[in-house]
Design brief:
The chain has helices at about 10-25, 35, 50-55, 95, 110-125, 170-180, 195-210, 220-225, 225-235, 270-275, 290-305, 310-320, and strands at about 1-5, 30-35, 60-65, 75-80, 85, 105, 125-130, 155, 160, 165, 185-190, 210-220, 235-240, 255-260, 260-265, 280-285. Helix content is about 35%, strand content about 25%. About 45% of the residues are buried. α6 (about 170-180) runs parallel beside α7. It has a seven-stranded mixed beta sheet with strand order 6-5-4-1-2-3-7, sandwiched between helices. A seven-stranded mixed beta sheet has the order 10-16-15-14-11-12-13, sandwiched between helices. A two-stranded antiparallel ribbon has the order 8-9. With about 325 residues, the chain is an alpha+beta fold.
Length: about 325
Amino acid sequence: TLDVAIHGLQLREVGEALARAKARGVRVRIVMNETHLWPRRPGDKRSPEVQALLDGGFEMRTLRGSREYGVMHNKFLVADEKLLWAGSYNWTLAADDMHLENVFLSDDAHRVAGFSGYWRWMWEQSRPAAQKPPDAETGPEPPGVPPADPTRPVRFNGTALPAYAFAPRGPAEAELAAALGAAKRSVDVAMFSFTSPELRDALAAAQARGVKVRLLFDARNAATLDVMKWFIAEGYEVRIRAGRDGRRGVLHNKYAVLDGALVEAGSYNWTENADKNSFENVNFFDDAATARGYGAYFDRMWAGGKLPTPAELEKWSRKD
């Protein structure tokens, strides 16, 4: 089996791999963001890769988030209910070629089971791909709340955290705030978009008690979003980046490393829309190898970042 939840698909190689899996007898089921199967904006159309899946008879359903801006924003798959692939990486050419992204794989049975349950929760409320959605400006509220981690197996400075948390209407933001509240030495954040007042305040409280906070932001969003601009105006240690070559693409990561020991990663931007309206995932890891890897990646991106001068912010706020 391959149970997939993906925002969109524009990678020919991935589409072909899914077709090969289906041809050898794997049951492939895909939940995709609604507008990638039924585009709403004038001039938009399905990608050839999405159309090939439809033409190939794949089991596909669509899902949108609630209210105006909610989306099915997850990027993960569960293989044979034994392996999880997840992260910030959309299955697009831009993600593969230009953006700064991350992916993790996990065969931890507890985490995999949690994602399988979340995937089924989405599948049950999604719409068959062949069924055109109504032309409503706002999406429906999801039925109930997503699955939660009952065991909270991750330990960080005496605080018990879940291995996973989901949105919308789940505890993701509260769990992130709890993790930030437990940090003692350092918090390194690499974030595409940040609008959450609660997480802003949690970082401010961490810095006030002596925690070293470093914030690495996407250059365009840092120049246009109020919370990200607030950190810059208040004198926090902030650097900005575009994509891999410093010009094209974006810093699309959504992760943090706390005290060099705890990693939070997934599809979840630290935004109100992610928490309240969109289908998202958050993961916590307390193993040393994961912390070293994500920490080294942060340091490499940080070294290539720029101090956000007023001129730099003005440049990015006007960039097309």
